[in-house]
Amino acid sequence: MPSWGIIPIPCDNTDQMSVCGVDEAGKGSVLGPMVTAGVLVVDPSELDGLGMKDSKQLSPGRREELYEIIVKRWKTAAVVKSPADIDSRPGTMNTFTASCHAEVIQRLTPAKAYLDACDVNAARFGTIVKSFSGLSNLEIVSEHKADDKFLIVGAASIVAKVTRDRLIEELSNEFGSVGSGYPSDPATIAFLEEYVRRTGTPPSCARRTWKTVDEVIARCSQQSLSDFF
């Protein structure tokens, strides 16, 4: 399995910076890690003209191009949580995600952070992230769809998405094609079903507490029973 945790991303720019954006990729995935990333700048207007936007609106090739620009020009950080980390988390997935946002902020120590809120209550999400960060003077802007609204969060979404895509590629090298890792992806479900039928257990890259895994196990068990009748 890949070695996951906090990924150090080199940056040539070592000047003091004060504003960061934070976003995550893979929160709802059934396979592979969740990656939370941040990008730190002096002024968000530095990102103007580069075509930054929510990573989901960009082609894989363009995301890679922008990723290389971002990590060379600005300080970035990515925190990676494995399926085992997610399965053993205390509390809800939203609270766990807030703690990951806080980990990124602790590494970047901005004066102000823009967050893509995953809680239905965006203000509450921001309050939880701030409390986890331990930075009492931190200013938080926590909004839904922040990756569409703020270039700095769009940049963070690109770093998170590219980092996660590379880790998913590592999983495919180990297990064979696993698809995108999301429950909506037929290739991911096909991989899970084949693996469970063959081994009797989910793969180590699966989030075993996810309902999708339970459903796959149940289907495979029914299919196995039907073989006897």
Structural overview:
With 229 residues, the chain is α/β, with parallel strands linked by helices. The chain has two domains: 6-172, Ribonuclease H-like superfamily/Ribonuclease H (Nucleotidyltransferase, domain 5, 2-Layer Sandwich); 174-226, Ribonuclease hii. Domain 2 (Arc Repressor Mutant, subunit A). It has eight helices and six strands, in the order E-E-E-H-E-H-H-E-H-E-H-H-H-H. A six-stranded mixed beta sheet has the order 1-4-3-2-5-6, with helices on both faces. Strand 5 (112-116), helix 4 (122-133) and strand 6 (139-143) form a beta-alpha-beta unit. The radius of gyration is 19 Å and the shape is globular. It starts with 5 loop residues before the first strand and ends with a helix. Mean pLDDT is 90; it is low at 10-15.
User: What is the count of helical runs?
Assistant: 8
Rounded mean pLDDT score: 90
Run of helices and strands: EEEHEHHEHEHHHH
Percent range for β-strand residues = 15-25%
- The CATH architecture of the largest domain can be named as 2-Layer Sandwich
CATH level-four homologous superfamily name of the largest domain: Ribonuclease H-like superfamily/Ribonuclease H
Helix content bin = 40-55%
Alpha carbon gyration radius: 19 Å
Structural class comes to alpha/beta
Keywords: Cytoplasm, Endonuclease, Hydrolase, Manganese, Metal-binding, Nuclease
GO cellular component, one term: cytoplasm
Catalytic activity: Endonucleolytic cleavage to 5'-phosphomonoester
InterPro entries: RNase_H2_suA, RNase_HII/HIII, RNase_HII/HIII_dom, RNase_HII_arc, RNase_HII_hlx-loop-hlx_cap_dom, RNaseH-like_sf, RNaseH_sf
